[in-house]
Automatic annotation (TrEMBL):
Transmembrane segments: 36-55
Protein name (record): Septum formation initiator family protein
PANTHER family assigned: CELL DIVISION PROTEIN DIVIC
Residues in coiled coil: 61-95
Lineage start: Bacteria, Bacillati, Bacillota, Bacilli, Bacillales
UniProt keyword Coiled coil present: yes
Keywords assigned: Coiled coil, Membrane, Transmembrane, Transmembrane helix
Keyword match Ubl conjugation: no
């Protein structure tokens, strides 16, 4: 059998103060625990928001880099076209070149000149 030990509690001023002190410590510990949980939740929320924002910005930056590369390629192509057009303008300002084109494409000839067109004649004018 078990022996039951009971201690009688003294109703004294000291015991009432001690019980109040223990109760205050218990409430203090509960408030501290709640504050820590609240702080941890806020920190987790802020870090989550920052991570989401960071990944969204990385995706946006990758998209912009891709767009930049495409635009750079387009710019290079346009510069090449511009160079080709300028060369063509220079050539078209030359009267000899224009006469040569007129002779080959439109069969214009000088006085007394005969022009023969062959099927394998490939001009790039």
């Amino acid at each position: 059998m078990q022996t039951k030990k009971t201690v009688t509690r003294l109703n004294s001023n000291y015991m009432d103060q001690y019980d109040a002190h223990v109760e205050r410590q218990k409430r203090k510990k509960q408030r501290l625990f709640r504050r820590l949980i609240l702080f941890a939740t806020l920190v987790t929320l802020v870090i989550g928001c920052m991570a989401a924002y960071h990944f969204k910005q990385r995706a946006l930056q990758a998209e912009k880099v891709e767009e930049y590369k495409l635009l750079q390629e387009e710019l290079a192509s346009l510069k090449k076209d511009e160079k080709d057009y300028k060369e063509e303008i220079e050539l078209l300002n030359d009267e000899e070149y224009i006469l040569d084109i007129a002779r080959t494409k439109y069969f214009l000839s000088k006085e007394g000149e005969l022009i023969f067109k062959t099927p394998d004649d490939d001009t790039s004018y």
